[in-house]
Every structure is written in C-alpha cells, then in structure tokens.
Amino acid sequence: MRPLIHPAVEDLKPEAILYALSDPERVAIFAQIAGVGSTGTCTALSNLGGRVIPKSSLSQHMKVLREAGLIRGERHGVEMRNHSRCQEVDKRFPGLVAAILGAYGRPPEETNAG
Amino acid sequence: MRPLIHPAVEDLKPEAILYALSDPERVAIFAQIAGVGSTGTCTALSNLGGRVIPKSSLSQHMKVLREAGLIRGERHGVEMRNHSRCQEVDKRFPGLVAAILGAYGRPPEETNAG
DNA sequence: TCAACAGTTCCGAATTTCTGAACTATGGAA
DNA sequence: TTCCATAGTTCAGAAATTCGGAACTGTTGA
C-alpha cells in the first residue's frame, strides 16, 4: 500500500482542483465530506444520489480529490476518515471552492468552504 | 460544416465549465479571448505561451469552450471571431469565472469576468 | 475558374477512465 | 498464533476520450 499523497498548500494546482470537481459524482462525494456531521469513510460515501459507486471507482475518486488537495485521508484502524481541506485551499485560492460548490447548487453555508 | 452550438444561459452546466477550464491551454485561450483588445481568431490564438497549438487541436479546444458556454463564435467572412460570454455565465453562476481565472493568476480586472 | 486562407472533420495512435477481481492492511475472536 | 471480517487499494483488460496530421469545407479575392 503506497502512502497517501497530500500536496502542500503551495503546491496546489488550479487545474487539478477544477478537474477533480468537473465530475458531478466527485462533487457529491466532496460536498458530503465537506458537509457537517459526515464520517467521510468510503462506506458512508458509496451510495450518493441513488447510484452505488463500485468501490474501485470510489477509491479512484478519492485519490483524485486527495491529490488535488481537496481532502485529507487518515487511517483510523481499519477505516479511512476523510475530511475537507477547504480552509487551506481557500487561503491559496480565495473564493474558488465556494464559487464552485455554489454553481453546483451546494450552498457553501452547509459546508466549511470559504 | 455543422452549425456551432451555443448553449442558452439556463442550460449552462457547471461540470462543462469546470472541465473546459481544467486545461491550462484552454484557460490561456479563454483568458486571451476574455482579455481586452483581442480579435479572438484561431490564428491569433495558435501561439500562446510559446507552444504552437496544432490547428485541429485548437479547433477542438474552441469547441469545448463554446459548448461549455464560455465563448461565442461568429463567422465573419473567412474568419471566426470569438468573444467571451463571461457576463452571461456570471449571471448564472456568480463569481465562478472570476474565481477560476483568479486561481490561475489571471486577474479578472484584465478581463470582463465578474 | 483558380488559389489562398481559416477553420472543421476524419481517423488512427496514444492516453485516460472504469470496474470486477485479486490483493493488502488492520482488528477482533477463538 | 491463526483465522475471519472489514475497509480500502491495486491490477488488468475493455471502453471511452484526447491528440494531431491529413483531408476536407466554405469564403474571399485575383
């Protein structure tokens, strides 16, 4: 198992963030993680919006979000807990994540974006 | 030659906009078009940032930007003039384009974004 | 009618994405 | 320890997408 990659704030790339959030399924995952009261485990995320996401696909989605710098994953025993890095991203690219979630109709006030 | 497709404001999709702007080459093209004093023709856009973009690739990039609703293309005689639809997009998704261009280090004040 | 020009479409090669199957890592029970 | 269950990752082949040279379309002017 390779170690997880979490880019430093100064290494965040707009193109990676935009690409990660150009997929509605990843946006749903990210919004869930950024939302309040989510455990952010893959199990909790595998059935968003009615479709069951295969776990290999979900793992790839998480990797894309992680390597874009949007979420941070930490192993806790057998499970992985994911939480958003909105505040760090917002420091680097002010208003970006909030504007994107807003465009998708995911009000930033339900998350910690912005 | 198929007619050009320009989605109506109410049909704009965030995922298409994010995808279109997740490629730095397309961002450079879009910023050039959104910038002041650009003719917006393909010829004027084929040599941005030092690399010569093959014209078939450029045509595809323009199509992606057009169908995302970010630019509008109009035939004028033999050439195509492209101009940005920032103001329309901003009405639908306030602050989105400005935040994205800002993240790429393309100050919105040099364009008509936002 | 012809040539030049601006851009589009075609199509094969290269790259990327998707997902079932196999695998790794951790924790708990016996 | 050994075995099993759980959570997620990695592999690998199929499907889809992207890239770009060549051929093409449509317009203008000679």
Outline:
By secondary structure, chain A is mainly α.
Show the helix and strand layout.
The structure is a homodimer of 114-residue chains.
Chain A: H1 14-20, H2 24-34, H3 42-45, H4 55-67, E1 71-76, E2 79-84, H5 86-92, H6 96-103
Antiparallel strand pairs in A: 1-2
The structure holds a DNA duplex (30 and 30 nucleotides).
Describe the protein's architecture and organization:
The structure is a homodimer of 114-residue chains. The first copy, chain A, is mainly alpha-helical and 114 residues long. Helix content of chain A is 44%, strand content 11%. Chain A has 6 helices and 2 strands, in the order H-H-H-H-E-E-H-H. Chain A has helices at 14-20, 24-34, 42-45, 55-67, 86-92, 96-103, and strands spanning 71-76, 79-84. Chain A has a two-stranded antiparallel sheet. The radius of gyration of chain A is 13 Å and the shape is globular. Chain A binds chain B through residues 14-19, 21-24, 27, 93-96, 98-100, 102-104, and chain B through 14-19, 21-24, 27, 93-96, 98-100, 102-104. Chain A binds a DNA duplex (30 and 30 nucleotides) through residues 1-2, 41-43, 54-60, 62-63, 75, 77-80.
